[in-house]
Amino acid sequence: MPATPNLTQIVILGASGDLTARKLVPAVYAAQCQHLFPGRCQLVGVARRPWDDAFFRSHLTKSAPKMEACSYDSWEAFMGQTSYVQTHLETAQDFAELGKRLDALAQGPAHRVFYLAVKPELFLTSVENLSHAGLLDQSGGLNRRVVVEKPFGTDLASAKALNAALLKLLGEDQLYRIDHYLGKETVQNILVFRFRNAMFEPLWNQNHVELVQITVAENIGMEGGRGGYYDTSGAIRDILQNHVLQLLAMVAMEAPSKLDPKSIRDEKVKVLQALRLPSDMADPGKIIVRGQFDGYRDEAGVAKDSQTETYIAARAYIDNWRWGGVPFLLRTGKHLPARFTSISVQFRMPPHTLFGSYDECHLRPNTLTLRIQPNEGIDLSFEAKEPGAGLTIKSAKLAMDYTDYFHKPSPEAYQRLLQDVVTGDQSLFLRSDEVEESWRWADSLRAAMQATPLRTYAPNSWGPAAATDLFGECEGRWAQG
Ligand code: BG6
After folding, report:
1. Is 256 a member of any domain?
2. Which CATH number is 99's domain given?
3. Which residue among 97, 125, 149 closes a domain?
4. By the 8 A CB rule, do 189 and 453 touch?
5. Number of structural domains the chain divides into
6. Ligand 1 center to residue 464 CA distance, Å?
């Protein structure tokens, strides 16, 4: 039996792209700096362009992160362990050569992570070529893991087909489907907050919660030449189906019996299976509001008559014992006035109006807000008596800020996720059934959306005014960051 190798090769396919220099390599470097990987790691960039090691290293160095814990020398040392292998991902023969280069670089047994930072059209071809070249063979106790970026399919049928095809070539335990939102500290904290504290969980159900709203608001538009991709995607496929539904699953799932990947993912998938649109779709405009920012059709790569939504807001329900009847209001959009992601859990109103009348339609004395980003933290609002003669009641809140409290910045999402791939923890990655259940619901939303008008909204506004109507009478209103 060979000894467990002390080396992991992180092989990025599509390494000439933006994601590699901006996110992946800084994340590997940061993890390496903090000794978060077991053993050594080598980085190998793979792409079609005729670059060499020196060119690749200088390209990466332009985006080198400033790490307090690491000196510039160690970046150089890290770059000294970084190589580039020109490979045409569609060409099977190139993968045999790639295998030889990886062996030569490793000079002995090594675990390997293949990170597919490639166009979705190349996911399957890349994995087929890796497999045919024997690069996914785990015999001898060598780990061979494949990381797949989103989008994983464009609907339920394509996601199923992709899952089926990939799982013929490698095991589910080798496949790491990324949703970078799960790497965010505040998202991981949802489970700690819910299940390490006993005081909120008794209230976390339809008896006490009136409504839950989840927002992923972005102030950017189509920067970075993304118009072409985005126009084939839209807000549902780009963000709602993945990031928003993952937040929903984390906030609504039952407590797993253990903190292992299977138990966590089993509970998340049950929430997604139970997710549905309201049964009464007589007035779809009260359920779904879709919008497109003014000027979107003039963006490069966008069709002049594009019907793609850059904003979506929808009302959904989770058909289970805990959440029966509680509306979940989900929203995401581009070119909104602020960038923020938050989850607000609105508790029910007090049963009796003791302190005079108040604006029941808008006042929600008790809301728990998980501020996912930026200004990461948790707020709990309540009403309090303002000091003074009379009885004036004002809203107050208990606020916890991550940076104030812990005095250190949160690591980048990719750092944590790459660390988990290398150590083999799939808890923060999506299992095939999770992806498929998310598409099942997203497909139903896309179909239902066709019966609603595409509304134009001004950039830098909160999207179509009609989204206010998704709240029933006296159910509160959208959070504004
Ligand atoms: C990506 C989407 O998955 O997430 C982008 O494709 C979006 O459109 C991005 O801008 C948002 O990520 P974050 O981490 O900046 O909130």
Report:
1. yes
2. 3.40.50.720
3. 149
4. no
5. 2
6. 21
- Say what the alpha-carbon torsion angle 102, 107, 110, 115 is, to the nearest 10 degrees: -20
243 is catalytic: yes
Q: What is the mean pLDDT of residues 458-475?
A: 93
Given phi > 0 = left and psi -120 to 50 = alpha, else beta, which region is 318? beta
| Ligand 1 closest atom vs CA 216 | 16
- In a shared domain, residues 361 and 282: yes
Give the pLDDT confidence score for residue 349 in this predicted structure. Answer: 87
Cα-to-chain-centroid distance, residue 12: 20
In this prediction, residues 62-87 reach a mean pLDDT of 83
pLDDT at 1: 42
**From the CA of 206, how far away is ligand 1's center (Å)?**
31
Contact 265, 257 (CB under 8 A): no
125: containing domain = 7-149
Q: How many CB atoms lie within 10 A of CB 206?
A: 15
Ligand 1 atom closest to residue 218's alpha carbon, by position in its atom list: 10
Determine the pLDDT at residue 359: 65
d(CA 164, CA 397): 49
pLDDT, position 73 = 61
- Regarding whether 220 and 141 lie in a shared domain, the answer is no
Most informative mutation of 232, 239, 340, 417 for ligand 1 (most atoms within 8 A of CB): 239
Whichever domain contains 398, its CATH number is 3.30.360.10
Ligand 1 binding residues, C-beta < 6 A: 218, 238-239
Tally helices (H) and strands (E) across the chain: 15, 16
Q: Are residues 201 and 110 in the same domain?
A: no
